[in-house]
Each structure stands twice: as structure tokens, then as C-alpha cells.
């Protein structure tokens, strides 16, 4: 039996969650496979028409020579950095202090590859070009995450990225893109994925965040890089005999949702305005640059939680299922807009924020 917090349980009862694409249940896979011919051949250890055509489609989308499907981004990115370290003869890479590799992967890079990570910049802001230029260490690769998830999905200006890329090329530093949420940044930059990816030597994308699939990742780059990544995929045990539940669902939801990223972005901007109109509430960034943002509410958890429980019961609009509390008694959470937001009747959304604003005003 699963144990849900009271907030998570109340959130589940609501009819209109504001974030995401809906419940993560097995209907996601059932729907994706529903229209497919049961005689479609399975992939076998990374080969076969269906996986190869999906990889070719993703390589073209990203403007790279080749693309390889991986069960996870964690695996794909550690491998990418290892390949670049071998190629450059250096055991150092650099990335943001709140990179997924630094805070969510149990030191995989260090433990498995003896790769040292240089943390660039500060936790609460993006890496700056001058910090890259001033870097004294001889790094093999710089990893840039777009958007920078842990600071609300913030993004550098496109011109800054161009300058970072030019600097890395001039210095022989490989540039890797953590594009777990790559599609989500395209409406802001007004670029195609391929236009953005020309700035990078290797790219990883995910299929279960904005795309809402089950799991899985693509790692893309030139022919020599991706050939090496396949060897490492095998060493990691990532060469499952069949990965089709992942890439077939990835393909299905990619087609459905990649074209909707502009809509999700606009809706995130609209929702952030509603949050910011409430006292004690600020969003990070104040005006979102993707479909995601963080919400900070200056109120301790034990006070805010009952307010949300009452709000959910009254409006059936679910704002969030968890609260993180900082030492200063400020609660925060992350919102990523998907298909669910458009389902909320506008008057109900308005009512929810009127009620929230009223109770927060009373404090
Ligand atoms: C920015 C970023 N990079 C990498 C990953 C790793 O992806 P996976 O869960 O497929 O290993 C994640 C997952 O949340 C992520 O948010």
C-alpha cells in the first residue's frame, strides 16, 4: 500500500491539476501502443527497423549525424562525458552546481569514471561566459543545461550561448547539452532544435518530462561519438534486449506534444501572473521563459498545507502535491505546464486564485 501525504492525497482527489499531462498510470503505455500493428517487429539489442528509424528521425530533428536511444538520461550523460574525457585526455568536466549529475546521480561520474567535476558559477543563477573564460582547469567538456531546472528553468540569452560555444570551440573544449527539457526552450529562443544544437558537440534529450512518455533518452552527436556511446551502453547494461515500450511511446507522445510547447509556454506565463498576484507569493523566474517555473510562498508548511487542502476541496483545482520548506519558513514547489492546464475551466481557475489571494492576505 502506498503512503501518500495528506496534501498528495487531496491533490489526487482534485479534477483539475494545473501542471503536467495527467496521472502517470499504465494508460500512458496502453494509449501509445493502441494504434500499432501487433506484428511490428521488436528491436533486439538496439537493432531493428523500428528503433533505427526513430533514432534517425531524432538525429534529423537535432541536426546531428547520429542518435542512440538510451533507457535513461543519467546513463546517457555519464557516458557522453566519459567519451569526451577519453578523447581529450583529461579527467575534468565542468557544470552548474545544481546540475542533475551533481545532485541526483550519487556521484556516478566520480565513482564509475574517476571524473572530477568543476562546479561553475553560483547555485542561484546561471553560469556566465566570463566564468567559463576565466576557468583555470583543463577541462575536457562543459555541460550546459537548458533550461536550468533547479533555478526555475531559467535560460541564458541566445547570444550568450553562441559566445560560449565559440569560446569552447576555440579552446578545444567539448560542449554537451543537457537538453532534458530541450523542446520546452524552443518557443523562447524562436529556434529549431537543430539550430540550437549546432552550438553543441553532443546532446541529450528526454521523453518523459515535457513529452510525457514513460522513460528514455536520446544521445546524439557525430558518428564516432555515437558509435562509442553504444559500446558504453552495453557496458552499463543499458542494451536491453528490447526497449520498444519506451521508444514507441516516446515517438507517439513526441509527435503529439512537441508542437504544443509554444502553448505550454504561454500558459506558464499566464499562470505565473496569477501566482504573483497573491501576497507572499513569487515565482522564479518572475516571467517564465519555458513551460516551467518555481513558486515560493513566504509561509511555513504547517500553515500553508491546511490552506491548500481547503482550497482543493472547494475548487477541485490542484496546485501542487508537495511542499518543500526552506530553513526560513518559505515553501516552494515546481510547476511544469502540460496538457492538463487547458482542461481547467477559466472561471474555476480565476476563483481558485481569488480564494488563494484572499486567505494569503489574511495571512
Ligand atoms: C536536467 C536533467 N538532466 C538529466 C536527467 C536524468 O534523466 P533520467 O531520469 O532519464 O535519468 C534529469 C531527470 O530528471 C534532468 O532533469
Question: Notable features of this structure?
Answer:
alpha/beta; Aspartate Aminotransferase, domain 1; 363 residues; 2 domains; 4-stranded antiparallel sheet; single chain; 15% strand; pyridoxal phosphate; 45% helix; binds pyridoxal-5'-phosphate; 7-stranded mixed sheet; 15 helices; Aspartate Aminotransferase, domain 2
Number of domains: 2
Q: Number of helix segments? A: 15
Helix content: 40-55%
CATH class of the largest domain: Alpha Beta
Order of helices and strands: HEHHEHEHHEHEHEHHEEHHHEEHEEEH
Report, as a whole number of angstroms, the end-to-end distance.
36 Å
The CATH level-2 architecture of the largest domain is identified as 3-Layer(aba) Sandwich
Strand content: 15-25%
Largest sheet: 7 strands, mixed
Oligomer: single chain
Taking Cα atoms only, what radius of gyration do you get, to the nearest Å?
21 Å
* Shape by Cα distribution: globular
Task: State the CATH superfamily name of the largest domain.
Answer: Type I PLP-dependent aspartate aminotransferase-like (Major domain)
CATH fold-level topology of the largest domain: Aspartate Aminotransferase, domain 2
Class based on secondary structure composition and strand pairing: alpha/beta
Find the count of extended strands (DSSP E, 2+ residues): 13
Low-confidence spans: pLDDT under 50, at least 5 residues? Answer: none
What would you say this structure looks like, in words?
With 363 residues, the chain is of the alpha/beta class. The chain folds into 2 domains: 120 residues, Aspartate Aminotransferase, domain 1, CATH 3.90.1150; 199 residues, 3-Layer(aba) Sandwich (Aspartate Aminotransferase, domain 2). Helices cover 45% and strands 15% of the residues. The strands form 3 sheets. It has a 7-stranded mixed sheet, with helices on both faces. A 4-stranded antiparallel sheet has the order 9-10-13-12, covered by helices on one side. The chain has a two-stranded parallel ribbon with strand order 1-11. Helix 2 packs across helix 12. It is globular, with a radius of gyration of 21 Å. The mean pLDDT is 97. Bound molecules: pyridoxal-5'-phosphate (PLP). The site of pyridoxal-5'-phosphate has 10 residues, from helix 4. InterPro entries: ArAA_b-elim_lyase/Thr_aldolase, PyrdxlP-dep_Trfase, PyrdxlP-dep_Trfase_major, PyrdxlP-dep_Trfase_small.
